[in-house]
Specification:
Blueprint: H1 20-30, H2 42-53, H3 58-68, H4 72-81, E1 93-98, H5 101-105, H6 108-119, E2 132-137, E3 149-151, E4 155-157, H7 162-180
Parallel strand pairs: 1-2
Antiparallel strand pairs: 1-3, 3-4
Helix pairs in contact: 1-2, 2-3, 3-4
The protein binds FE2/S2 (inorganic) cluster.
């Protein structure tokens, strides 16, 4: 597995303040659409703020709503619809384990429980050292490879079984330790 970018915050600014970097990103994304369609940049703008802060706060939603002329509730609907947007801070590595029917029929729920038990976390929880978050996901569009999980919204792990999951956890733990030194 190639090294994954951290799922946690890299920002120095507070979620309620639009950094210069984020403002430039917003400008770039909004310019891709006609003025009356600038709401189409909502996902890209949310992604910019999540990259900075590690999750989407109410303050971040307000910033996006103001920039795009959208009602805050409409931005919140987008944040809560997509798995890739974190509603709260997450661990260094976030596991989205698919438990929809095709994955469930091939052990998706077992994989979720195995990870939770291995890492001693509740579903949706984060390990005490902040290394791992384990959560359920809706269909990830890779049903033929079931059961699957997604790490940090970027890397798909297919045909999960206990051995593959144990190896994944140990590889990522080593990566986290290497990143910290
Ligand atoms: S049901 Fe799991 S990827 Fe589609």
């Amino acid at each position: 597995m190639t090294a994954l970018p951290c799922a946690q915050s890299v920002a120095a600014t507070s979620p309620g303040v639009l950094s210069q970097r984020a403002a430039k990103g917003f400008e770039r994304e909004i310019a891709k659409y006609p003025p009356e369609g600038k709401a189409s940049a909502v996902i890209a703008c949310l992604a910019i703020l999540q990259e900075e802060h590690g999750f989407i706060s109410t303050e971040s939603e307000m910033l996006v709503a103001a920039a795009l002329g959208m009602p805050p509730i409409a931005v919140h609907e987008v944040t809560t619809f997509y798995n890739m947007f974190n509603q709260a801070p997450v661990g260094r590595f976030k596991f989205n384990v698919c438990t929809n029917l095709p994955c469930a029929l091939r052990g998706g729920q077992h994989a979720l429980e195995h990870l939770c038990s291995t890492l001693s976390v509740e579903e949706g929880g984060t390990t005490g050292d902040g290394s791992f978050t384990v959560q359920k996901a809706e269909c990830l569009g890779a049903c033929a490879d079931a059961p699957v999980l997604l790490v940090n919204d970027l890397q798909m792990v297919s045909f999960m079984n206990d051995a593959r999951l144990d190896e994944l956890v140990s590889t990522l733990r080593a990566q986290g330790q290497a990143d910290a030194t």
